[in-house]
Amino acid sequence: MLFKPQPLLPKFSFLLLLTFLLLWMPSCQKDEFAELSETEDYDPDFLYKYYDHLCFTIKTTQGFFPPQAARAYGYIGLAQYEAVVHGIKNAQSLQNQLNGFSTYKLPVPESGKEYNWALASNAATAKIFKFMFEKRISANNARVLDSLEAQNQINLMGGVPSDVIDRSVAFGQKIAEVVFEYSKTDGGHEVYLDPFQLPFTLPTDDYCWAPTGAALQPLSPRWGSNRPFLSINVTQTQVVAHTPFSVTPGTPFFNEAMEVYGTVTNNTPEQIEIAKYWADDPFMTCTPAGHTFNILTQVMREERISLAKAAMSYARMCIAENDAFIACWKGKYDYFLIRPVTYIKRYIDPNFNTVIGTPPFPAYTSGHSCEIGAGSRILTDLFTDGSGNYLFTDYSQLQFGFKARNFSNFNDMAEECANSRLYGGIHFPMDNSKGLQVGKAIGDNVNKSILWPRFVR
Asked: What pLDDT was estimated at residue 454?
């Protein structure tokens, strides 16, 4: 009988060894943060709750007009992204990508230590939220925020070792502290305490803005000199001068006013509904930026995305919205243009009335158009192939007593928002078209000039 070689290990043991090797080998190829769980592993529902409360807090906090609201969103979005970026594959911190941020030392994860990125995000978001409203937040809003942070932490810490909890929370809190220090030097720190930035001397030329309501001074006249997150969002997006001012019938400027007058005089019921739907008045809603963030949150909930993509999506929108209001406000106070209601009452019809209230700042360009232009480009890049085609129903205004509206394209949504200011009688057509142009350029800059992770579920 021939000799038959015997296996070195029993068959069952060999299979166990092979399984072990297959499981072990990939781990040897990971980077130095081998023990960190990925941000894709977490559900972002806890994060959405902060943005829901942010909307309410903006609505109910004195001094948070549209520019101040967009700024609060901006730094909250930055902190929550930095709190999780090290757990996202192929992602880079924004520290060396944003204007002036590189001089502030952000913490980095300890090599080989385990982190829970949801806990880090929870801690960072709660703390930066408090910082953004600290001198004006109501006792009730503060209690809700504290309760939300505590309940989120309880929900997220189940089964997590105590050292991981402590390390993750401390990491998130430190991120918020550094981001807050960065925010203090942008020119908008605590402007919510004096949103009209008095004293300010009004120019008196015929083409200039004049009070249109109770506010005798224009809002935040120095906001346009704030530091943007991306310098190019101001230096490369500013519009050319508006159509030359004229009170002569038949001239281009007079015709701009006549288009406002004719539109308001002949508004359809739907146009009136659109004007009111997109009005997003401060202290009655959470401002135009808040409306756009509510849409983003709704889409992300419906898409059932991971914490990684949610954090990145909020960061993009936060940067775009903050910079859109800075760029827009620079244009407003560079040109200081009269509002249609003032012009029409002076030169066309003294009995003219707008559909919605005219806000207290110059006309050119439209803040709504700038912010929705920027927001639409972010939404388009995140959720479409670049066409903007996306079928959704905006339920975000139900909380303010409006009916839901349906859209099939983010660009169409932006056009409707911009046109709403014409239907409302508060902006010239050029304010809206040029505002969209500025906003879209800003959104494109945010999408393309920052290194964002592209393969996040």
From this structure: 84
CATH 1.20.144.10 maps onto the chain at 39-183
Q: Is residue 231 scored above 60 in pLDDT?
A: yes
Residue corresponding to tokens 């919205």: 321
Number of neighbours of residue 104 by Cβ within 10 angstroms: 16
CB–CB of 451/319 below 8 Å? no
What is the model's pLDDT at position 33?
A: 38
- CA-closest candidate to residue 82, choices 293, 319, 294: 319
Token output for 246: 């004229």
pLDDT in tens, 404-440: 999 999 999 999 999 999 999 999 999 999 999 999 9
Burial class (CB in 10 A: 0-12, 13-18, 19+), 382: buried
Residue 31 has pLDDT above 60, yes or no: no
Q: What is the pLDDT of residues 326-341, one digit of tens each?
A: 999 999 999 999 999 9
Q: What percent of the chain has pLDDT over 90?
A: 89
State the sign of the Cα–Cα–Cα–Cα dihedral 230, 236, 237, 238. positive
Count Cβ atoms within 10 A of the Cβ of residue 457 and give its class: 0-12 exposed, 13-18 middle, 19 or more buried.
exposed
Contacts of 46 by beta carbon, 8 Å cutoff, 6+ apart: 118, 121, 122, 152, 155, 156
Are the CB atoms for 381 and 299 separated by under 8 Å? Answer: no
63: left (phi over 0), alpha (psi -120 to 50) or beta: left
Sign of the CA dihedral with 60 first, then 65, 68, and 74 last: positive
What is d(CA 234, CA 228) in angstroms, rounded to the nearest whole number?
7
Question: Are β-strands 389-394 and 405-409 bridged in parallel, bridged antiparallel, or unpaired?
Answer: antiparallel
The token pair that represents 81 in the structure block = 């992204």
Cα–Cα distance list, 444 to 151, 160, 334 (Å): 37, 40, 24
CATH class of 196-449: mainly alpha
Q: In CATH, which superfamily holds the domain spanning 39-183?
A: Phosphatidic acid phosphatase type 2/haloperoxidase (1.20.144.10)
Mean pLDDT of the 346-363 span: 98
Classify residue 210 by burial, with Cβ atoms within 10 Å: 0-12, 13-18, 19+: middle
pLDDT at 21 over 80: no
